[in-house]
Amino acid sequence: MSNTEVISLFPTPFLRAPSALPAALVDALVAHFSQQALQENNASAQLSHTRMLKPSESPLLVEAAALITPKLSEFGALMFGEQMGWSLKEMWVNVLDLGGRQAMHNHANSFISGVVYLTPTHQSSRTVFMKSPGGTDFSFKNDHAGVATGPFNAEKWVSPQPAAGDLVLFPSYLMHAVPPNEGDRRITLAFNAIPVKLDSWGYQIGFSG
What we know:
seven-stranded antiparallel sheet; four-stranded antiparallel sheet; 2 helices; globular; 2OG-Fe(II) oxygenase family protein; CHP02466
C-alpha cells in the first residue's frame, strides 16, 4: 500500500445552500423585479439587468437579505478565520433569455459575491467558474483526449444544477461566466457583500455604506 499523501494547498471556498429562499419569496421577487430588468448587457442582447439596488429599497429585498446574511457570516469565517458582521453592498436581478450568455468576469470592490437562482436553470446555462487568465501556472499544457481532468489541472468548473431558491456564495475575485442559454428564461438575484471591518493586529479597515 502506498504511503504517499496528496494535500490540497489553499483551496478556494464555494458555498451552496439549497432552498435558501422560500418559494413564496422567490415567486414575489420574480414578479416584482423581472419587469425592471431593462439594462441590456454589453455582450449579449438576450441578457438584461436591473439597476444596482440597495436591500432597503424593497421589503422583498429586506426579507431576502435577512436570509442571506447569516450565510455570509458563515462563509466569511472560511475566508477570514472569524465570524464577523457582513452587509449586502448591492443587489441586482438578471434576466437571461434563450441564446443569452454572460461573459467571463469577476466583481470589484467586494469580498463575497453570490447568486440566488429564482427560476429553474437549463443545464446549458449553469454558472461556470474558471481560473483567472495568466496567474502563476506553468505555460505548457498537457491537453488531449486521454487526459484525466481533476481539481489540480482543470481550468473551469461547472456548478451543480440549481433549483429555484438555491443560493451560492464565492469569493468576489473568482472568475465566472454563464454559457449560452438553451432553455427557458433564467432569472437570478446577484449580490456583493462587504464585512464591517478587517482587523490586522490592531490596524483596522472599516467599510460603510
